[in-house]
Amino acid sequence: MPYLVKQVLVSLFFAGLLGAVVVLNRLPPDFDFSIFLRNPYRGTIAVLSYLRGPSPETLDEQEALRRYGFFLREESKKAGIDFTHQTPTLDPKLAHIMPITASMGAAVSVCDFNRDGLLDIYVVNSGEGSKNRLYRNNGDGTFTDVAEEMGVADLNRDGTGVCMGAVWGDFDNDGYEDLFVYKWGRPELFHNDQGKGFTRVTEKANLPKWVNANSAVWVDFDNDGHLDLFLAGYWDEKLDLWHLADTKVMPESFEYAKNGGRKYLLRNKGDGTFEDVTEKVGISSRRWTLAVAAAHLCGSDYPDLFLANDYGVSEVYCNRGGKEFVEIGKNGPIGTNPKSGMNASFGDVFNRGRLAVYVSNITEPRNLVQGNNLWVPKAGTSGDRLQFVNQAGALGVERGGWSWGAQFGDLNNDGQLDIYLTNGYITAGDGDDYWYDYGLIAGALKELIVDAKNWPPMKGRSLSGRQTKCLFWNRGGKFEDIARAVGVTDVFDGRAVALADLGNHGVLDVLVANQKGPLLLYRNKVVPENQWAEFELEGAMRPGDAGDGKKSNRSAIGARVHLYWKNEAHPEGQEQVQEVSGGCGYAAQNMRRLHFGLGRKAEIEKVVIRWPSGRTQTIAAPKVNTLHAIKEPTE
Ligand SMILES: [Ca+2]
Ligand SMILES: [Ca+2]
Ligand SMILES: [Ca+2]
Ligand SMILES: [Ca+2]
């Protein structure tokens, strides 16, 4: 062999080796090379998909199950769900930027309203005169809309505003979850009449007359056993968005706006009425809130509040003994990084028994890269000195397009919480987008931004439309976006995400509400080796009981469940905390029941429940693959 040819062959050999090393470095440690023996073509595709980056190609169900342990299939139509969200048409003075000003309202909340053990779905609409839907779960995989006959459909009537979302909570402790609907308009409260219908109790409850809100949460902030309501304004509550006096209604800044709607902490007096205690507890924010959620963040026995605000910084309100709230976000990076907060949800991502907060923002390469935030509590900090560190970049959950609703949930039951994130703002024409003009107004002076007439007309253009969604798979301290690979292929303008075990078989299905788009139901299939446990809690309060704090609200909202378990991957044992929620994410509510994925060959050592009443209950060795109904003990 001539010397030159030999040289070339040797060089090629080493180049190949080097390439292989690069490729191997980018493959996951558990990559299954036997795939090449079974099907070399598929093996090559699998390797290439990893090299291409975060969102691998679509896989068939078998391959997704093998690789990730689960697969999602969009089956809303098959389930009898045929809902398309309509947007409102606000005052004609806003016509030139209507797609922006009317860009919200798609929302979804889950609740078993008739207590038959099957989870039902409430979805609001936002077009003037349009109808909301209450999908009753028939138990055979199908749903029937019963909103009209139950009296909770017709909530977008002229002069009352339009719906933006809903949260369920049993405010009178009669065992049936009641319905609160927030709007750009008159908020509404419906008493659930034993699952047979709903009675409107808005006036009797003494609710505020008009609030332009995009979020609300049920929370028993004073632990007296009566669920209170926190309602967060977005636009100024003095505005009737259909009848504007002038066009000076927009945020005064893209980063430091404080001219949004006021907040309402409405204390449940236990007699069917609510009193406004917002000022008394020290909350005076007028930021443009898009999401509020409650959880025990600061370490006391009282629930704290997290507000994700648009056009500014997020806020963390530490609850001092159910009497006062102190904003502590401003003491750290949360208060110094103004973004476009659109989501607030909680998850114990490292299985350390502490909750992190996921806040979504805008990431559009070349135009605006804010990045989402994963606020992880700093070890050793609590109370007013609680500090959070943003680990979104390090963990791989920072980039998600124009992000909206997100929820934590163990979608493959491997024992680690994953994140489902939807995104996309305005999908319109195929031509130019609005980004250049958006940049112009965002960079303008305060006096100009606040006046809608200075905003360049949209002229039918898109702004971050047709985006692919994110499903961040938790690989143990690091996440990877595998949305497309596990069946999430839609590109609608997503808003709200809710997770629920709709089939009662121990897996989390995914509901997504889209602006001007369909309500999607992604049914989840999980490999049976991965085990689970679910806990449905009921507080001891009953109608007529004194609100003396000795019993918890019947919905058990605010109860913390610490689960201690071992599995094949972690024989040394792990801990995960979850908290019963009265609404979280963006305009959403997951099922109230808590779902824990456990992994293979799991064994639960114990479950420790800290009830809002202060009582601690320990359950030794509860069974896996079981839904446990647990009542608060009174003895
Ligand atoms: Ca039901
Ligand atoms: Ca009730
Ligand atoms: Ca209360
Ligand atoms: Ca998982």
Write the layout of secondary structure elements.
Layout: H1 3-26, H2 35-38, H3 40-52, H4 61-68, E1 70-74, H5 98-101, E2 107-111, E3 120-124, E4 133-137, E5 143-145, H6 147-150, E6 161-169, E7 178-185, E8 188-192, E9 198-200, E10 211-219, E11 228-233, E12 263-268, E13 274-276, E14 288-295, E15 304-310, E16 315-320, E17 324-327, E18 345-347, E19 356-359, E20 363-364, E21 368-369, E22 373-377, E23 388-390, H7 392-395, E24 403-409, E25 418-423, H8 435-442, H9 446-449, E26 470-474, E27 479-481, E28 494-500, E29 509-514, E30 519-526, E31 531-538, E32 560-566, E33 574-579, E34 588-589, E35 594-599, E36 603-610, E37 616-620, E38 626-631
Parallel strand pairs: 2-34, 31-38
Antiparallel strand pairs: 1-30, 2-3, 3-4, 4-5, 6-7, 7-8, 7-10, 8-9, 10-11, 11-12, 12-13, 14-15, 15-16, 16-17, 18-19, 19-22, 20-21, 22-23, 24-25, 25-26, 26-27, 28-29, 29-30, 31-35, 32-33, 32-36, 36-37
The chain binds calcium ion (4 copies).
Please provide a written account of the structure.
The protein has 635 residues and is mainly beta. The protein is built from 9 helices and 38 strands. Strands 6, 7, 8, 9, 10, 11, 12 and 13 form an 8-stranded antiparallel β-sheet that branches. Strand 15 (304-310) and strand 16 (315-320) form a beta hairpin. The structure holds calcium ion (4 copies). One calcium ion (CA) binds next to loops.
Give structural attributes.
635 residues; mainly beta; 11% helix; globular
| Distance, first to last CA | 91 Å
Assign a percent range to the helix content: 10-25%
Count of beta strands: 38
Radius of gyration, taken over Cα atoms and rounded to an integer in Å: 25 Å
Structural class: mainly beta
What fraction of residues sit in β-strands? 25-35%
